[in-house]
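re: that complex we talked abt at group meeting.

here r the seqs, copy pasted straight from the sheet so there may be weird spacing, ignore it
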Amino acid sequence: MAKSRGERRLPKREYEARVPVLRAGLVQMQVALQAAPFSVVLVIAGDEASGKGDVVNILNGWLDPRGVETLAFHEATDEERERPPMWRYWRSLPPHGRMAIYAGGWHSVALAEDPHSPSELAEFDESLRRIAHFERLLSASGALIMKVWLRLSKRAQRERLLELEASPDTAWRVSPADWKCHRNYDRHARLADRMRAATHRTGAPWHVIDAEDPRARNLGVGEYLLARFRAHLRTHGRAAAIAKPRRVVSLRPSGLRRLLALPLTQRLSQDEYEAKRDKWLGRLNRAVRAAAERGRSIVWVFEGWDAAGKGGAIRRLTSAIDARDYRVIPVAKPTDEEKSHHYLWRFWRHVPRAGLMTIYDRSWFGRVLVERLEGFCTEPDWQRAYVELNDFEAQLVGHGVIVLKFWLHLSRDEQLRRFRDREQVDYKRHKINAEDWRNRRKWQAYEIAVGDMLALTHRPRAPWHLVPADNKRFARLEVLKISCKQIAAALEG
Amino acid sequence: MAKSRGERRLPKREYEARVPVLRAGLVQMQVALQAAPFSVVLVIAGDEASGKGDVVNILNGWLDPRGVETLAFHEATDEERERPPMWRYWRSLPPHGRMAIYAGGWHSVALAEDPHSPSELAEFDESLRRIAHFERLLSASGALIMKVWLRLSKRAQRERLLELEASPDTAWRVSPADWKCHRNYDRHARLADRMRAATHRTGAPWHVIDAEDPRARNLGVGEYLLARFRAHLRTHGRAAAIAKPRRVVSLRPSGLRRLLALPLTQRLSQDEYEAKRDKWLGRLNRAVRAAAERGRSIVWVFEGWDAAGKGGAIRRLTSAIDARDYRVIPVAKPTDEEKSHHYLWRFWRHVPRAGLMTIYDRSWFGRVLVERLEGFCTEPDWQRAYVELNDFEAQLVGHGVIVLKFWLHLSRDEQLRRFRDREQVDYKRHKINAEDWRNRRKWQAYEIAVGDMLALTHRPRAPWHLVPADNKRFARLEVLKISCKQIAAALEG
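got the structure back, here u go
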């Protein structure tokens, strides 16, 4: 099987003839990318000593450094360890119009776990599943994802390590760990196969390149990058045209039924409210401190009709919590950095550290509410979102985060009363505008979208809590009570 | 001295009459703030048990949570500890049009060090100096900075602690540490006095409020906030008009003389270059690894004329470094999140962690080059910037970061040759545009600005390295050589 070195190698002359053509193409690519409505993710992974770092450096040499960034994942920081595993990858993503080269990517982090036992292998598979889901999300949102695996045979790996060791300038690159890795070549190759099989999908396929001949390897990576980019530009070069939203039809009527069946007549007098409020505030305070002591974070999600009292409910809630431990994230118009990322990026940004709390005043569910109804995304986008949102919350829950989702429900008449009241009161007037009145006219369409959301994103460990909110005092107390009970249940469970 | 409780207290009726007026004012303030070209920083600090958390919660109740965020600094994370001390505060700053309430602020972090020994006190004073500088920067850029100190007498503190302990709902808020703090009241009060004296400046003054009466305290904070905001809106409500840049006159001609004296005739043949390049790349590799082993970060700053070869020099440099350990930050047009922060915020963002490297392809010096000459900031802005930039770099150096600043110098003729060459070569054409030609016509004005920069920001521990760049090979080798020598010197020093 031994081949003489140099056999089947790309001649230097041919390499030197092809590189300038490739470089010109890559630079044109970068110019086109600047205006493109998508980002480019290029993962360079591969066997030990296959030259991942060299390839990354050579690509950086060919490309204009403006618009491209090279990223690698070192040992997780405490800020990263205190969030779900994918958080560090989310925060590293390039915006539209830019490209990131990932040396090793998230795949190398998974492989570095070097699983042996069945339970380690099960965890490995779980992390591969998360990775596959992550890449599916990105690719569905239009990102160009390229994953290159540089393959080096065991023989070639040995030769390469010996070659590196021979020169004083490169000997530092070979460590005892590399030789250990070489002795375990077959096992590592099997793990890498397993990894690639689990994460090879349309939109995020693996492309394996033989790395024995560095010139062929370099050209192979560069030409693959260019070909994929050109094809992607043809299909994704313009933002997808969004059809006018059609008549809103329920996907899962059980949610709407649940919504309409909610009684809204509960009342609580000021005296009753005050008699109970402090007790529940005290309980909530003890509950959140108990959660913090166990390093559990809490995420509150407040959704509801305009004027349903989300802000008031949040203020009551936070009055029981140390101001240093929570953040309220009002979800309004995204910034341009947010707009040029995946729609979940802006929520991942604010996932709390261990023992801390984030309160989202409106949330990721905007995707299946306002964005569905106003045509801010395509129909496939919002239809896919139910699964994406569930998975996002599953990642939070899987990491130990307590997720509390509230829908504050209001009758249409009560909303009208509150709109009119807001227009009367000086310091409330800014809270009401033409858009609120417009949304109100679409009440029935929203009801259907809310129903679908309730039905399709109600999960055992991240359930929806429907709160009758025609009476503000009743609603606020309900939010307190449910929060206390759910936190207690999560800490016991 | 004992006063009966309730004496001189604000009557509840008066409080309830004044709060709605205040709230209306605060909400109008928030509406006005949304469109204002500045951010609002409100620090609520004070003696133990003075009700800082209560005040923060009450303010949150009065304000609309949209547009305001409450922040507090817990123990520094490893990502924070690996950067200069002020990094964590920089990354927390609100953008224009938004407000942040800091519970305790950076001041409480400094006070929490509880310095005793002379050396601890000297370090305390140094952190106060950094804080004062930080606040001066922010305020000079137009931010509204309010710092409230809630004062509680020793007697009132004792009463408050006993009162909290008496109720089961609030007893949790009193810890043994609070009583210890109470016993050391006088010493803590002296430290707080020292802190306030050192950080009390025009633009960022301390406002002391007696916290014994919670109602008076709450109103005092709210009314102070509103009054300061209204005054600030009058003076800073519109972005400062920028006068057309006047004739460019050198501030410190020694820099221009240094620039013009630089010989540009050095040449290096391809053979000479190749003979030496690999030796220096090897040395550089060993140098950066030695720095990383000691946890020292490196920041490279590349400035130079258009077409001076910054990108090429960076590519040679990075070819000796593991791609996982550096990031190249091309400094182009800021994003809107960057534009709505202090101009240094976008550079603070990318300060590397311990042992890692950031290469800035253009940098903060844009403030005294393009922004000075094109009128992107006011004359006081760029004149002040020399000190600000020096201080920024001093913070990096003070934290152990090795700062390497290069000015790649070119003759005007050579630039012309390169511009024309770029227009000829396919994959270089995108690098040249009308703006480059426009800048070229302002060569002499830029020369003066560059000279001033060289003279005014050349510091012993962050010196400028002038590199003759008419010959690319010579320039690249110079950058490698100087980098090696400077890193070695920094590790020895």
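couple things i noticed - Residues 1-6 of chain B have pLDDT under 50 and may be disordered. Chain B touches chain A through 62 residues (CB under 8 Å).
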